[in-house]
Amino acid sequence: MAAVILRLDNVSKSFGALKVSDSVTFAVPRGEALGVIGPNGAGKSTLFNLITGSLLPHAGRIELLGRDVTRAPAMERVRMGVGRSFQIPQPFQGLTVFENLLTAAAFGRGGREAEMVDDCVRILIETDLLRKANVVAGSLTLLDRKRLELARALATDPKVLLLDEVAGGLTEHECAALVVLIKDIRQAGISIIWIEHIVHALLAVVDRLAVLHGGAILAQGAPRTVIRTPAVAEIYMGIEADA
What we know:
This protein has helices at residues 44-52, 74-80, 97-108, 113-126, 142-155, 172-186, 199-203, 223-227, 230-235; strands spanning 4-15, 18-29, 33-37, 59-64, 67-68, 82-84, 160-164, 191-195, 208-213, 216-221. By secondary structure, it is α/β, with parallel strands linked by helices.
């Protein structure tokens, strides 16, 4: 069995009387891709913020590589191997594509500049951005901004990569190209947690699917089995269970 990279054990978070994360428990082994779906307000973004350390839970435990990071600051988690892309790409718009990667690498891992440069070039090749290495990030198309968002996360040398709605806003052809890229990333043994509304993109990649509702995990397991669960159809897709 593959080693567990990330583990959440009964993690809960509230804002006053509103519970946005309710006893969330799951583990992600090395190399696994976990998809996360759920309606707006289900707690998906909160989940990522808890994993990255942007929010601290009120209860429960978060482990990364077997170490308790429940109270660890975000910077420490990045250095340990938590990488994240955002739903709306947020590059340094006045920097080139290559400079964006180099900045992410320096922030996320440190080390010798020569080593970071070599790794950044490799990532540019893997994400099909090498030809745009010297292009200012603010001038990129949406697809290339999405690629750059992934590339910047990879530059931090993640053990687990959190993808937040990376397929949103893309055409069918662009979405297919992004799915190929994410499959390639998996080949490096990086664990992935992918929040996405475009379910067919998830099903093309993930090993396991979790459904969030009201901050709690409603169902998780084999993707196509979970999708067919009556409660998921009723709550997430708005289809009555006896329809």
